[in-house]
Specification:
Elements: H1 3-31, H2 34-42, H3 46-56, H4 58-88, H5 92-118, H6 120-155, H7 168-182, H8 188-198, H9 205-208, E1 210-211, E2 218-219, H10 224-233, E3 238-243, E4 245-254, H11 255-264, H12 275-278, E5 284-286, H13 291-301, E6 305-309, E7 315-320, H14 321-329, E8 343-345, E9 351-354, H15 359-366, H16 378-386, E10 395-398, E11 401-409, E12 412-420, H17 421-440
Parallel strand pairs: 2-3, 5-6
Antiparallel strand pairs: 1-7, 3-4, 6-7, 8-9, 9-12, 10-11, 11-12
Helix pairs in contact: 1-4, 1-5, 1-6, 2-3, 3-6, 4-5, 4-6, 5-6, 7-8
C-alpha cells in the first residue's frame, strides 16, 4: 500500500468521524429536554448555557449541521470513489457506493445517533463548545442556503403558508402524556393531576360549584334552638345566613367563631347571642370565573368560601377552596363528610348515577368525552339534548351513549343509567339472541 492510498484512507476515516459528530450533535441537541438543560444551567454549568443558546435558533442550527454533515459525507464518498476506481477501474464506482453506504449508515448515522439518544444531556453538553465554533464558521454559508430555500418556496407559493401554532400549554400536555405512556401507567394518577392543573384556566366556577339546593343554610329569623340544632347536625364549618328568602344571603357564619363566643358566655348566655354580628360579609363571585382566577383570589383574600351568582345576581350556589383542590387531586374525604351515593358501575359496562353528578367527574373517572359546554351535571346534559323533561323509563341516545331515566322528582332527574353505545349494542345483540333461542324452544 503506497503512501497516497494510506493518506486517502485516513482522510476518509476522519471525514466519517466528523460526519458522526454532526449526526450525534443533531440528535443530542434535539433529544435533550429543555427542563434538563435549564436545571443544569441553574447549577452553574456554562455548557448548558451554550446548549440553550444553540437551541434558541433551531433553524440556523439544523441548517448548519446539515450543511456540515452533507459536505463531509459527499467528500468522503468522492475520495472513496476515486480511490477504488484507481484500484479496480470502472467497477470501483459500484464498490465505493456499496462500501460507503454501509460505512456511513452504520458508523456515521446509526451508532452516533443511538448513543446520543441514550445519553442526550451528557452528549449535548460534550459537543456544545466545538459545535458552537463550527456553527459560527458555517453560519454565513448556511444562511445563504436558507435564503435559496426560502426563495424556492416563495416561487412555488408556499412561503406564506401558516403553520399550526402549538401553545405552551398544549406542548406541556403532550409531554405529560408521552411521559405517562413511557411509564406504562405507573404515573397515571400524577398525569391526571397535572392535566387538571393545566385545565384550571379553562374550567369555570359554575361547573364545580355546590348548587344552592344542596347547601346547608341558616334562616336568621328562625328560633335560636332550631338554628343550633341545624348547626350541630351539619358537617360544615361555614354556613350562609339568609333572611326572608333562601337566595338572600346576608352573611357567612364560621362555626369556630360561634363556639369561641359560646365558651365565653355564662350559663345559658348563648341564647342572647346575635348570630348576624358574628357573620362575615358574603363574598359573591360570577359563575364565569375560572378556577385559576378563583384560586388566586382565595389566596389573595385569605378566604376559603364564596357565593356563586349568575349574570343577574341570583345566587346559584357556593364554591370553596376544597372544591378547587378536589379538581386537582380528586375527592378529599374526612371523618365528617357526608357519604354520597354518587356513581355505581354495573357489570354490563353501564353506570347508574345521580343526576347531580358532574360531567367532568364522569369524564375523568371513566375516560369519556361527554361535552360540558352547555351543562355542568349529567341531568342538565340530558335536559339540554332532549329538549324536554323526560318521564321515568324514557331512553335517549346521543354522543354515543344511551341514557335511561330511572327516577325523577318533580321536574328534576335524580337517577339515570348511562350505557356506552358499544356496551348498548352488545346488550341489544344478546337480547335478540335470547329471543331467537326462546322462539326456537
Amino acid at each position: 500500500m503506497d503512501s497516497m492510498t494510506l493518506l486517502l484512507l485516513v482522510a476518509i476515516a476522519l471525514l466519517m468521524v466528523i460526519s458522526a459528530f454532526f449526526s450525534g450533535a443533531e440528535t443530542a441537541l434535539t433529544a435533550a429536554t429543555r427542563a434538563q438543560i435549564l436545571q443544569m444551567e441553574k447549577r452553574g454549568d456554562k455548557r448548558a448555557t451554550l446548549v440553550k443558546a444553540l437551541r434558541k435558533d433551531r433553524e440556523r442550527l439544523i441548517a448548519t449541521i446539515l450543511l456540515g454533515n452533507n459536505l463531509v459525507s459527499v467528500l468522503a464518498a468522492a475520495l472513496a470513489t476515486g480511490l477504488l476506481v484507481g484500484l479496480y477501474g470502472p467497477i470501483g464506482v459500484l464498490y465505493a457506493t456499496v462500501a460507503m453506504t454501509v460505512l456511513l449508515v452504520i458508523f456515521s448515522e446509526i451508532l452516533p445517533k443511538t448513543y446520543a439518544l441514550q445519553n442526550a444531556v451528557p452528549a449535548a453538553l460534550a459537543i456544545a463548545r466545538p459545535l458552537a465554533i463550527v456553527v459560527d464558521i458555517l453560519a454565513p454559508f448556511a444562511a445563504g442556503l436558507r435564503l435559496v430555500a426560502t426563495g424556492l418556496l416563495r416561487l412555488f407559493g408556499k412561503a406564506g403558508a401558516t403553520a399550526t401554532l402549538v401553545t405552551p400549554t398544549q406542548a406541556l400536555r403532550g409531554a405529560i402524556d408521552v411521559l405517562a405512556q413511557d411509564a406504562g401507567g405507573e404515573i397515571d394518577q400524577e398525569r391526571k393531576m397535572l392535566h387538571s392543573i393545566l385545565e384550571l384556566d379553562e374550567v369555570e366556577v359554575g361547573e364545580i360549584m355546590i348548587h344552592r339546593q344542596n347547601v346547608t343554610t341558616i334562616d336568621i329569623d328562625a328560633p335560636l334552638d332550631e338554628i343550633m340544632d341545624r348547626i350541630a347536625a351539619s358537617p360544615f364549618t361555614r354556613m350562609p345566613i339568609w333572611r326572608d328568602r333562601s337566595e338572600n344571603i346576608i352573611g357567612i357564619l364560621h362555626i369556630k367563631a360561634l363556639l369561641q363566643l359560646i365558651r365565653k358566655q355564662p350559663q345559658g348566655g348563648w341564647r342572647r347571642i346575635d348570630l348576624l354580628s358574628l357573620a362575615a360579609e358574603p363574598w359573591f363571585v360570577p359563575e364565569q370565573t375560572s378556577l385559576l382566577e378563583q384560586l388566586q383570589a382565595f389566596r389573595k383574600r385569605r378566604e376559603h368560601f364564596a357565593v356563586v351568582v349568575d349574570e343577574y345576581g341570583a345566587v346559584l350556589g357556593i364554591v370553596t377552596l376544597e372544591d378547587i383542590l378536589e379538581e386537582i387531586v380528586g375527592d378529599i374525604a374526612d371523618e365528617h363528610d357526608v357519604v354520597a351515593r354518587g356513581v355505581r358501575p354495573m357489570a354490563d359496562g353501564a353506570i347508574v348515577t345521580e343526576g347531580t353528578v358532574t360531567i367532568r367527574d364522569l369524564n375523568r373517572q371513566f375516560g369519556w368525552n361527554l361535552p360540558a359546554d352547555e351543562a355542568a351535571t349529567i341531568a342538565g346534559l340530558v335536559l339540554h339534548e332532549s329538549r324536554q323533561i323526560p318521564e321515568v323509563g324514557q331512553m335517549f341516545v346521543f354522543h354515543d351513549f344511551r341514557f335511561e331515566i330511572l327516577r325523577r322528582q318533580r321536574n328534576q332527574i335524580t337517577l339515570l343509567k348511562i350505557t356506552p353505545q358499544i356496551a348498548a349494542n352488545d346488550q341489544d345483540a344478546q337480547s335478540a339472541a335470547d329471543e331467537v333461542r326462546h322462539a326456537g324452544a
